[in-house]
Design a protein that fits this description.
The complex is a heterodimer of chains A (176) and B (424). Chain A is an alpha+beta fold. Chain A has helices spanning 5-27, 31-35, 66-76, 102-108, and strands spanning 38-47, 60-65, 89-94, 98-100, 118-131, 134-149, 152-162. The longest helix of chain A is centred in the N-terminal third of the chain and has 23 residues, at 5-27. Chain B has 424 residues and is α+β, with helices and mostly antiparallel strands. Chain B has helices at residues 25-34, 128-131, 158-174, 197-203, 210-213, 215-225, 258-263, 270-292, 338-351, 359-371, 407-421; strands at 12-13, 16-18, 41-45, 54-60, 63-69, 75-79, 94-96, 99-101, 108-110, 115-117, 139-143, 146-150, 182-184, 189-193, 239-242, 248-251, 299-302, 306-309, 312-320, 323-333, 380-382, 391-393, 398-402. The longest helix of chain B is centred in the middle third of the chain and has 23 residues, at 270-292. The chains are: A alpha+beta (176), B alpha+beta (424).
Amino acid sequence: MLKTENAERTAASWYTDFLLDEAELLDARRLEEWTSLFADDAVYWLPMDPDQAAPGDGLNIIYDDRLRLLDRVSRLNSGLAFSDEPHSVTSHTLSPVRLLDGQRAQEAAGGRVLLPGEHAVAARCVIGRARQGRVDTFHARIRWILREHGDSLLIVMKRIDLLNARDPLPVLTFLL
Amino acid sequence: MTTARIRPEALVRDDGVRREIYRDPEVFALEMERIFKRTWVFMAHDSELAASGDYLTMRIGAEPVILVRGEDGEVRVLVNRCMHRGAIVCERAAGNAKSFRCQYHGWTYRNDGQLVGVPYPERQAADVRERLGLVALPRVESYRGLIFASFNPGVPSLADYLGPSAIGYIDRFLDQCLGLPLAAHRQAHRISMRANWKLQLENGMDGYHAGFTHRSFFEVMQRRLGTSVRYASGLPTATSRAFRNGHCAIDPETTSRKPLMSRVATLPEAAERLALLRAEVGDDKYEDYLGGLTGAGINVGIYPNLQLIGIHIRRIDPVSVDQTVVSVRPLLVDGAPEQVNWLRLRYHELFYGPAGFGQPDDFEMFERVEAALGDTEDGWFRFERGFGAEQAVDGGDTALGNVSDETPQRGQYRQWAALMTAEG
């Protein structure tokens, strides 16, 4: 485990690099590669309520296990998900990534218990989505649970709290 | 309102409508007056206002209103506008309050509308409190928990307005899970679309589009399950129905819920949740609950703004001629095992909501219609499938067509024309 201050700084840049790579895959629309970042037991989650503790505690905009996430990507790549035909182009801008600890790390875990080798991180994100001559902008707080996996990481949980998740939303047929 | 330019009778015929009805702001303004202020409008489910003081704010057409349960238990609909200088008196979407205070000059109204507080009353006429309560809508009635209101004191009773055929379908919908009572979930998906409200009205009762608009959904399900989960479309026995007053339904006319039930296996945590359900209720009841948790398999439309589909209540809120907010609120089953309600929410999330696998593609079609609203060619939209081939049944209360016919839409536009062309 990484203990010293320098090592923590190194760890933070490790998470940051990983998450910037993730954003690059989304913005380059390399969606199948993007799904390979997720663990078999991963959850991709977009709740409507920022205080909701776990996906099963309320109605969600997205609650995907890994199979559903693969369905989502295959639908988007099928040419038949008409609300994203022609496709959106996205731009994810991340704030500096912060490591969460203690209570805040547990909250990020959506009701699971964090295991050794799993780390909770958070960032603010501005997502631009261009489609059919329009740009929509979404503001989000995103939290990830990342699991050490060889010399890389896997996403165990990605929780996206949209600034306006409780308001009427436009169609979100793209990946945040 | 001056609307001399609009001649609604020229905008509809028996098998079609003019494009103007989706894009002309004057048509929209007339609809808000002649449809939304003339007939019954759906508000909410009774369970959303369980306690005295519980309230919801919304609009009926252009009018902001508060739906509130008073201290006497009665549900009222109050115009959400101060009688003094016209500011909104209740800003929140939902809550609980004994009174509403206008923050402009501090006028305070009890939750039954009575004006009870006027700051510095000595400069005000003595009878101000008696004269200037919030305007209460003259009619509020409900059917099995579905609350409707009307600005029109002369509107027929809600039961007459709905009629026996639509009521039969509402009952089938509400009895969807072993006949147990349903209650509204506290959260609803709300989607904002850049399109006219009537496009959602038509589409919710459209048994023709699913195999095309939603093909990607059916392909995802087929790949996961190895079997088709298509439902009703194209079946010669499946029906569409137009009832009185623009109400309608589409009905697969089958007791088999298997194609819907099989989708449950694809939901997150389905295997463990279904095992828990089976262990709790036993093999005999398991299939009944599995069927019940996927809904009644029928779509019911109550003109002008309510649809009962899947496991949800859908309210269509027009905002402007090309802006609409659609709410889809899941219903939970009172007294059902926890797993049933847990899986109902997951089942709803599969297809519905801003990022569901089905509903967004409908909205895309509405926006494509909106994007194509030019004024060349002949300017008519066609609802002519099955036109002239309908049967009158239920003693004339129902026009019956095949599920892919445009029977429901023709019924909706008969009602549109009846309301829009009546003067006064």
